[in-house]
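During the no-cost extension, the postdoctoral fellow (Dr. R.K.) reprocessed legacy sequence entries with the updated structure-token encoder. One reprocessed record is reproduced below for audit purposes.
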Amino acid sequence: MRVTMIHAIAESISPMRLAFAEQFPEAEVVNVLDEGLLFDFDDQITPHLRRRMSNLIGYCQDNQADAIGLACSVYAPVVDSAKDLVDVPLVSSYGPVMADAVAVGSRIGLIASVAPALRDSEFYLKLAAEEAGKVVEPVLCLAEDLIDVMRAEGQRSLERRLEQEVMRLAPDVDVVLLGQFSFAAALVDLQKMSPVPVLSAAHSSARTLKRLLS
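Re-encoded structure tokens follow.
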């Protein structure tokens, strides 16, 4: 089974591979990277950017994908308009992890490094809660330095920064959600030290894709 993941930053590829190795090891994972999707993004998905992402989704199916996942958080809304373009499962970066978070509790901490991702996280969290017949209380954490820390200082420094944010959120939430795929490699470390459950968008997506292809 071939799962093709679409990325807007190179740093999300390795965590995605890790998540699949843990949750769906039998999948053949193909990663498609278009860094221009992030370079050209300016706080909104323009018609041009929506078309580019839709074209990439079609390209993935044309290249034998059995399922397609988005690893770029800000493009999650494109799934709604692109799902009729392909006849294989198409999973957004938010859908799976939001459903998992809603199942855990009502007070949900959301961590992101860019404001649009945090804004979209809150929207999709509330949508998942509505679909589940629940009410949630999002607790938002915008930590804009996280990607810079990861790029300049490495994975361990990123984990320490995420630890700080998780511990700051923990007293006020039932679960903490790592909304960006590039944070997924820190999940095991964070689960060990956090007093509340921590969820990774990448791991939730891998589990959902496995279920859809079973």
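DSSP finds ten helices and eight strands in the chain. The first strand starts at residue 2 and ends at 7. The remaining legacy entries will be reprocessed before the final report is submitted.
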